[in-house]
Amino acid sequence: AGDTFTAEYVEFEVKRALEWLGADRNEGRRHAAVLVLRELAVSAPTFFFQQVQPFFDNIFYAVWDPKQAIREGAVSALKACLILTTQRETKEMQKPQWYKQTFDEAEKGFDETLAKEKGMNRDDRVHGALLILNELVRISSMEGERMHEEMEEITQQQLVHDKYCKELMGFGTKPRHITPFTSFQSVQPQQSNALLGLLGYNMPQGFLSFGATPVPAKSSLVESRYCRELMEERFDQVCRWVLKYKTCKNPLIQMTILNLLPRLAAFQPHTFTDQYLSDTMGYLLGCLKKEKERTAAFQALGLLVVAVRTEIQP
User: Mind listing the UniProt keywords for this protein, alphabetically (predicted)?
Assistant: First the structure.
């Protein structure tokens, strides 16, 4: 009886949230819908999976929303659903269309003509499209994502260490920069730092976990072979899209590009090095000269170095 109730409850909530997305825009309902969908995808994946196609048919209404919080909430729900679909892939199943459908939606975001017809703001549209691509690349490269998470862990540990030292010395504790790589969540001192090993360091774990508080372990990383095949086929197109907007002054677009470029480099390091590394380095060096983007640019540069290894010369 419990499972029946849960299945009916999840079905009801998912359908209601999707109806809110597909209806005329109501900011409050649309924002609530993406938050509910994400939580259901994470907390009740078996039942949510039964509604997965309607999810992909409706979530992009919110991805193209003019409000940043709704766009990012929708992409967070999309991320949870992509993890869910990846975990349920089997060799026997037919090639799913969800990844192609998602990629096609991102492509619409870069279509100037289509955007004008729908009256969409260019920067909002491009930001949404880049966020979609970021999730498709994330789910296509498990090794690249492992590097990305370990860089974030190191950054969080450094924030904790700096905060502790400032408190010890009597200085203020507010950090100067917040980037897409960082948050103020506690870090995980019990986890190994493979990234440090790749960079040639052998620091005692106690140093990195100085002042840290353990939290539950992260969810296991996953990789979709179907999405990987798709993104390998479209890799050049994706890189061209991303680099096309490197001169855009919108800070949301800039931060998303800084997040996305290292993922692309880790996904296809040889192709990226041969064709896009020079432009990327020029872009990152330019970002280092801008105070607001400097921290994120340094972190993107660090991830890029790990991804392409010896291809970057001093």
Answer: Kinase, Transferase
